[in-house]
Specification:
Layout: E1 3-6, E2 13-14, E3 30-34, E4 40-43, E5 46-48, E6 54-58, E7 67-75, E8 82-90, E9 95-99, H1 118-128, E10 135-139, H2 145-154, E11 157-162, H3 165-177, E12 184-188, E13 202-205, H4 209-219, E14 227-231, E15 242-248, E16 251-259, H5 260-264
């Protein structure tokens, strides 16, 4: 059961279950909230001060557990104010994006593009133990650096999928630049409509926690022995089979690996 978040003291306080936690295990939650023009934002009923179309809210450090935030945008209109409310389930350490704008005013993508640092790409491919017999699918491929690097370093077949035509263009340019067009294909596709039951032996993701959870039904259809790699974000509450931390110029990146069998068991 999730814990109700109370912002009355220092923005975030919580009802803590019995037992104590070492302070070093407490982590913050970051919410990036996209709002209609001129909207006011309330989190757990408390007004939040911000400027611009995006509010970045960072909680105080929280002990391990499940938490729920209620976000409300109040938007003025010709017939009076209207409200948009969203409940967000989070865990300490999560980064989540919440879009409270009308559907027609949202971008085509579910997540803002953020390139994976190259040393993280190298590390995740080592973690996956890629071989030339593998077939790697990168869901939300951005500029194609993961499938391109997999093909260059391990001579494996790889495919990148992205719904954004700009990212597909960038990926195709990198495929041509590095001469891996015989091994790498790039497709403009909705990743949530892909059939993962045949084809990939490795799936890589750099999405958000709620999008990873949305992918789970598809990921559970992967063939035996397949591996799933997620950069930065958990997969629901399923404990990873392996977890590494990679130092980069942008800070530390968590990289998680799950076997297909582990995902099917939960």
């Amino acid at each position: 059961m999730g814990r109700k978040v109370n912002l009355a003291v220092g923005l975030v306080a919580c009802l803590i279950a019995a037992g104590t936690f070492a302070q070093e295990y407490w982590r913050t939650v970051t919410l990036e909230v996209y709002l209609p023009e001129g909207a006011r934002l309330f989190i757990e009923g408390q007004p939040i001060r911000f400027s611009g179309p995006v509010c970045r809210f960072v909680s105080r450090p929280l002990p391990p557990g499940r938490y729920t935030y209620t976000l409300t945008a109040v938007v003025s209109g010709p017939t009076g104010p209207r409200t948009v409310t969203r409940r967000v389930d989070v865990r300490p350490g999560d980064f989540e994006a919440v879009d409270l704008r009308e559907p027609g005013k949202r971008p085509v993508t579910d997540v803002e593009y953020e390139p994976t640092p190259q040393n993280v790409v190298d590390a995740l491919l080592r973690l996956a133990r890629v071989t030339s017999k593998d077939v790697l699918w990168d869901l939300g491929c951005g500029d194609g650096r993961i499938p391109v690097t997999a093909a260059r370093q391990y001579a494996c077949k790889a495919c990148g999928f992205d719904i954004d035509p700009r990212r597909v263009k960038d990926s195709l340019a990198n495929v041509r630049k590095f001469g891996v067009d015989r091994l790498v294909t790039i497709e403009q596709r909705d990743i949530f409509a892909l059939d993962l039951s045949q084809g990939p032996t490795i799936v890589t993701l750099y999405l958000l926690p709620h999008l990873n959870a949305r992918m789970l039904p598809q990921l559970r259809k992967l063939p035996p022995g397949a591996r799933v790699i997620s950069v930065a974000h958990r997969m629901a509450d399923i404990k990873p089979d392996q977890h590494i931390v990679v130092d980069t110029e942008l800070g530390e990146f968590d990289v998680y690996l799950w076997k297909a069998e582990t995902l099917r068991g939960h």
